[in-house]
């Protein structure tokens, strides 16, 4: 690995993903929109100097600024372009040969009184080959001329970005008779001369002419599609223009999915404090471990040499203290967070863009589903949506979502719509699970609330600190957190209606239904009143949690997308528990849920409903329109799946332990993927082993799953310490947590002030 200069890789190496998507070696390339290009190039002057090939690049470049531009300029003359709204000037200067005229033009910019262009793109050679019939004398003169121009370009490179575009190969079979002397052998000789001479006199690494050699690689793959064998097809020159835009603009615009040419972000104040905290935790744990090991050696049992028996030590080994467990957890977490930072903030590991193909999504899906079937076991209980079944459900859904993310399948609308149902199913389980607990247990204590909130949010809070990301960035955790609080508030507010109370008087059931109707009314109102929603979540401190890029629109959009499904989960739990209480369903091992006739009818309706939704989702043509319908219809497929999974007794009595294992760590898997499986905040793919895509996925996946499992254990251990059952101790811990967030807010304010 040659180092962290991804600009060099962007300009010199890469490969095609499919036919049109260019993947630079080691980094991700951002696709610039015209508004972004204007913002980057505002008040800039860009100059392209060269022949007809450079003119092609010029047109592709200005189309990134204004897509309406037509190629109507003079073929063998200068072509100006200006965008007055952003004060951008881009000029093409016709100098088809590297000669005295080109030298004079470049020399004029080196004079102190003249305004220098901010970007200079130069390249020429094919005309010299053509005019002089490919003679060796022309090549020798080319070397002399470029030797005289090189110091001038290097001088300009001190204050401007200067790029020398190497000559692309030609498709010799398609060349006209007047161009037959332009051979790839001659082009290689001219390129070799340019590379050898440029920068040969420059000792300052910052004042170098950047050699744009990646165009050669692109041309080798696409020149066969050329109209005349000399000029690149439009898609290839557009790729070259996009590379040029990335080289210059990434360090200015800092796009998340454009890791090429971006410097490593500096450590923030909060990150430095976190680093010190984890370092002290590791040191503290090592000191305590050494002390305990030393004590253990002193008190260990001695072997009786005569009898060969062990004598028990007089002093028993002490139990692990709370402090030691705390330091142990933070020690492991510190090492894991270091790995997170190195993967997605330091320029240590490579990142690549996603590229979707049907095979990259459906083959892994088929593989894991078949694998899950091989781990089928009997359930401990045969109730509808028992713990093992819900873990299995979460597990296979999470694996499908992970494959969806790494394969970039969001570009394929039918897959996107089905994944939206899986996300909705998670929220459905949130409504079902929490409603069932509060309804049956009637436990509205602070301990329960704190346990749930801690388990949901601990990892995300740590990542917000270590990775310098807002809370709303990990949108799913805020979503389930808010819905949990809504469920809690709905059931805990007076009058508290629970199953035990409702069994004594059936009227309480209507009271609960009235509460649910009020909840549905509020959801409906907020979903169609963006202003009211934004006012609620714009109050401090909610605004600190739910703002993204300075507003709460993204939060409103995420909340609105699955606004009814938690209510559906609560309603389903209420109906199911009511039927169960009245013994209207049979949940014995191997027994159908209802009578044979009713079970068969419901099973048929469920299968038809499931397939109908899939057909509708697969026929979607417009994402916006389908997203509008999704909140109301997603419950159809969710309920259909539940009935198909639970009506037949033999299906309800088994589960996949493979999927259930992943289901137990599904939340950690969903969050960890952002930084240590995917890259650039989910926009790309982490590359630990370059050049071997399949092996890389295997290695990064193994580490990713192990880390998620370890974090799950750390969260469970810390939950027992941070959220104790004793109310007085819990109150003290809550005050400490409040102090922690107050300090975090204070340092965040200092950090923002220093940035501004």
TrEMBL record:
Residue stretches spanning the membrane: 269-291, 325-343, 355-375, 396-417, 452-468, 474-494, 506-526, 561-579, 600-617, 659-679, 685-709, 730-750
GO molecular function terms attached to this record: N-acetylneuraminate 9-O-acetyltransferase activity
EC number per UniProt: 2.3.1.45
InterPro entries documented for this protein: Cas1_AcylTrans_dom (IPR012419), NXPE4_C (IPR057106)
Keywords on record: Acyltransferase, Glycoprotein, Golgi apparatus, Membrane, Transferase, Transmembrane, Transmembrane helix
Subcellular location: Golgi apparatus membrane
Glycoprotein recorded as keyword: yes
Domain of life: Eukaryota
Domain Cas1p 10 TM acyl transferase positions: 253-734
Domain named NXPE C-terminal: residues: 22-72
Any one GO cellular component localisation term in the record: Golgi membrane
Main subcellular location: Golgi
GO biological process: carbohydrate metabolic process
Keyword Transmembrane helix among record annotations: yes
PANTHER family xref list: N-ACETYLNEURAMINATE 9-O-ACETYLTRANSFERASE
Name the UniProt record assigns to this protein: N-acetylneuraminate (7)9-O-acetyltransferase
Species whose genome carries this gene: Alaudala cheleensis (Asian short-toed lark)
Name of the gene encoding the protein in the UniProt record: Casd1
């Amino acid at each position: 690995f040659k180092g962290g200069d991804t600009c060099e890789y962007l300009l010199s190496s890469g490969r095609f993903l499919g036919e049109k998507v260019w993947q630079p070696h080691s980094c991700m390339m951002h696709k610039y929109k015209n508004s972004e290009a204007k913002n980057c190039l505002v008040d800039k002057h860009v100059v392209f100097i060269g022949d007809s090939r450079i003119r092609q690049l010029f047109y592709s470049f200005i189309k990134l600024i204004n897509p309406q531009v037509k190629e109507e300029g003079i073929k063998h003359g200068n072509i100006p372009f200006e965008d007055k709204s952003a004060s951008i000037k881009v000029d093409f200067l016709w100098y088809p040969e590297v000669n005295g005229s080109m030298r004079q033009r470049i020399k004029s910019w080196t004079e102190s009184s003249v305004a220098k262009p901010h970007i200079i793109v130069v390249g020429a050679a094919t005309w010299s080959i053509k005019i002089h019939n490919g003679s060796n004398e022309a090549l020798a003169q080319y070397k002399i001329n470029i030797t005289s121009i090189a110091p001038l370009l290097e001088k300009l490179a001190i204050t401007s970005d200067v790029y020398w575009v190497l000559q692309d190969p030609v498709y010799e079979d398609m060349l006209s008779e007047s161009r037959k002397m332009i051979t790839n052998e001659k082009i290689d000789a001219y390129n070799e001369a340019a590379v050898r001479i440029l920068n040969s006199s420059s000792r300052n690494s910052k004042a170098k002419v950047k050699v744009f050699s990646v165009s050669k690689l692109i041309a080798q793959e696409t020149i066969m599609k050329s109209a005349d064998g000399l000029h690149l097809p439009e898609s290839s020159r557009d790729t070259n223009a996009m590379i040029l835009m990335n080289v210059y603009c990434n360090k200015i615009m800092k796009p998340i999915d454009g890791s090429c040419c971006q410097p490593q972000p500096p450590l923030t104040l909060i990150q430095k404090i976190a680093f010190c905290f984890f370092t002290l935790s590791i040191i503290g744990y090592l000191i305590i471990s050494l002390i305990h090991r030393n004590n253990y050696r002193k008190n260990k049992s001695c072997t009786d040499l005569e009898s060969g028996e062990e004598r028990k030590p007089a002093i028993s080994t002490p139990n692990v203290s709370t402090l030691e467990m705390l330091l142990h957890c933070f020690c492991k977490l510190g090492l894991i967070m270091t790995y997170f930072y190195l993967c997605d903030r330091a320029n240590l590991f490579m990142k690549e863009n996603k590229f979707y193909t049907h095979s990259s999504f459906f083959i892994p899906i088929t593989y894991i589903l078949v694998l899950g079937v091989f781990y089928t076991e009997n359930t401990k209980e045969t109730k509808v949506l028992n713990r093992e079944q819900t873990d299995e459900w979460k597990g296979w859904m999470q694996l499908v979502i992970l494959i969806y993310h790494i394969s970039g399948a969001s570009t394929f609308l039918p897959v996107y719509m089905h994944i939206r149902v899986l996300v909705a199913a998670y929220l459905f389980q949130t409504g079902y699970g929490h409603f069932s607990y509060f309804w049956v247990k009637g436990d509205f204590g602070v301990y329960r609330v704190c346990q749930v909130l801690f388990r949901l949010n601990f990892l995300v809070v740590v990542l917000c600190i270590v990775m310098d990301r807002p809370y709303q960035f990990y949108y799913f955790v805020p979503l389930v957190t808010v819905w949990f609080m809504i469920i809690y508030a709905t059931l805990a507010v007076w009058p508290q209606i629970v199953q035990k109370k409702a069994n004594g008087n059936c009227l309480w059931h209507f009271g609960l239904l009235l509460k649910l109707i009020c909840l549905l009314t509020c959801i409906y109102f907020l979903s169609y009143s963006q202003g009211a929603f934004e006012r609620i979540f714009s109050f401090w401190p909610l605004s600190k949690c739910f703002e993204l890029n300075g507003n709460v629109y993204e939060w409103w959009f995420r909340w609105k997308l699955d606004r009814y499904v938690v209510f559906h989960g609560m309603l389903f739990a209420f109906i199911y528990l009511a039927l169960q209480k009245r013994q209207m369903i049979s949940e014995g091992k191997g027994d159908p849920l209802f009578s044979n006739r009713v079970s068969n009818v419901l099973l048929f309706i469920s299968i038809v409903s499931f397939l109908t939704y899939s057909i509708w989702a697969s026929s979607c043509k417009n994402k916006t329109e389908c997203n509008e319908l999704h909140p109301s219809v997603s419950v159809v497929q969710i309920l259909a799946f539940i009935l198909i999974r639970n009506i037949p007794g033999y299906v309800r009595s088994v589960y996949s332990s493979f999927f259930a294992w992943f289901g137990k760590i599904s939340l950690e898997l969903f969050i960890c993927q952002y930084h240590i499986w995917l890259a650039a905040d989910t926009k790309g793919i982490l590359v630990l082993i370059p050049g071997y895509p399949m092996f890389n996925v295997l290695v990064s996946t193994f580490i990713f799953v192990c880390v998620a499992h370890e974090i799950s254990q750390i969260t469970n251990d810390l939950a027992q310490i941070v959220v104790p059952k004793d109310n007085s101790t819990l109150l003290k811990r809550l005050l400490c947590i409040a102090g922690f967030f107050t300090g975090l807010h204070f340092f965040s304010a200092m950090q923002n002030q220093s940035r501004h």
